[in-house]
Amino acid sequence: MKAILLVRVSTKAQDFDEQEREIYNMAIKDGYLPECIIPVCEKESGIKLAEEERAGLNKMKELIEEDNDINCVYCWEVSRIARRKKINFSVLDYLTTHKIQLVVKNPSIRLFKDNGDIDEGAEMVFTLFSQMAESEMRTKLARWKRTKDAKRKESIYTGGWILYGYTVDETTKKLIIDEKQANIVKTIFALYLTGKYSYGSLAKELMQTGLLVGYTLLTARKFISLTLNNLAYAGLPSSTNKRNNVKTEGNIYPQLVTLEMINKCKEIAKSNTNKPKKQYNNYYFGKGLLRCPYCGGIMVAKKNNNTYHCQECTNGFWIQINLVDSILWHSSIALYATKLAHKDDEDRKQYYCQLAICDSKIKTSESRIKAMQERAEVIEYKAYVEGTLSITKADSFINELNNKIDRERKELNKWMNDRATIQGLLIEVSRDDKVVNLDKVAEIKDDKTRYDIIHEVFDCAFIDRIEQYKYTISIYPKLWNHPLQYTLNTKKNTVFTDVTEDIHQHLIGKRHSFIDDIEVLPISEEIKCYEERFKAVRNKEKNRYYNVKYCREHKEDNARRQREYRARQKALKVKDNQGE
């Protein structure tokens, strides 16, 4: 039979020879031959790593799975298996399932008795020492953390990356200012606080002046961004891990700038947001809604020729913005009016929810005021009746409570006013005389308002080409399973109702129409909705210049083509005369 020696140390500075030697002697005394003893020695943490990350435990399990002759595992103490009781219990369960004996030297533990039964006493001792190993490590970690925090408060270096502008005193081991680098940091703050620089322009300026050497423009910009947002330069715990998740602990450095300067830099950075060089006031109704039928990509608007097109696939086509936007607005009018008619029901539900919230806040505020008033009465009773509390202290406590009561009453008045406002809104939406006027919706001319309405009622739209100048558009309203379909004629700028479904229903016998007792197919109707909002931008002077330039550069080619054309026309004329 064979045995495994499970040996673990936490750091590279530790040596596991002593552990291995002692449990090796135990295995020899138990009758195992030297060639049947398999050492598994690893230098790894017993608290930081999960069970599946532990190389020693994984190797032990592989050996047990591959070799059926292994029947025993030796270790020096319970903490050498792991410092976490969850892992220890998992290993114990694994060895119990595979009927593998576990022998621990300190304390003396043997998992199985000689008859093969589990030793309950040994299992209890194993559980106890597993808990002790984990508790010991938690205590050590807490002690190490307290020691580190105490040293950090004294600006003693405790390891890790040193912030730019500082160095470590070799004698005292304290963090001190590096004058050369600190001057660069102060210069960065001073220049940026003038408001004349962005991160990029300041990085370029410092690189050109030679203050930042060995940086690219990208790395210099990143360095300046981290510097201007790091609270450590104000003497607070270092905060270089995440801008939106500032650390509350870390090395504390000598102060170079004030916290107000850092906050001011953040405000300047927020105001330095890049804005587009050109500001466009055009609203394209189909923006974000139109989809390409071939690739499903979003069709974009092209301003120079007023068309929508897909940039993602080669099968894309171009269609007029004016025509598409016209049918989108026409289709949205009735849907939006219907939504407004039912909007009161949704508002009413929201107002009732807000009323319930206000009632809860009012009730809580009133209970707080009552509790503070009762507490003030108790204090007065103890001071003026029982005499167990000095009048000076009682007056101080009562004044403090009165101030709190005043603040709470202000909050209570706020909730009461909010409740009255919501009740007024609830009465307004409950009126029966409110009628949604469809014509008023159709009369809206503001492009931004119309854009918002269209995007509020529609989810997406697909455009497909049938033939030249003819397209179909399928518009999907939100929460609808079927689209609104129309046929577009881009040459005549006309829109027709799509009758594909009507014809299908007619053919299967579910829809009939008669004119003079003769059954006829459905006919699509034209929708008068075209609106020319955009006109193609044409620069006549530019076009004329281009035409003149083209004629001059291709004068000979044009003359040759004209001669060939006249020769062909002359030959055709001669041929016709001969035929006559």
TrEMBL record:
Which Gene3D superfamilies does the record match to this protein? Answer: Putative Large Serine Recombinase, Chain B, Domain 2, Resolvase, N-terminal catalytic domain
Q: Where in this protein does the record put region Disordered?
A: 557-580
InterPro entries per the UniProt record, alphabetical: DNA_bind_recomb_sf, DNA_bind_recombinase_dom, Resolv_N, Resolvase-like_N_sf, SSR_resolvase
The chain positions of domain Recombinase read: 163-275
Keyword DNA-binding listed? The answer is yes
Recorded GO MF terms: DNA binding; DNA strand exchange activity
Query: Which ranges carry the Resolvase/invertase-type recombinase catalytic domain?
Result: 2-155
Pfam families membership:
Resolvase
Q: Which residues form a coiled coil?
A: 391-418
Keywords assigned by UniProt? Coiled coil, DNA recombination, DNA-binding
Give the superkingdom in one word: Bacteria
PROSITE patterns from the UniProt entry? RECOMBINASE_DNA_BIND, RECOMBINASES_3
**PANTHER family membership:** DNA-INVERTASE FROM LAMBDOID PROPHAGE (PTHR30461), SERINE RECOMBINASE PINE-RELATED (PTHR30461:SF2)
Stated name of the protein: Recombinase family protein
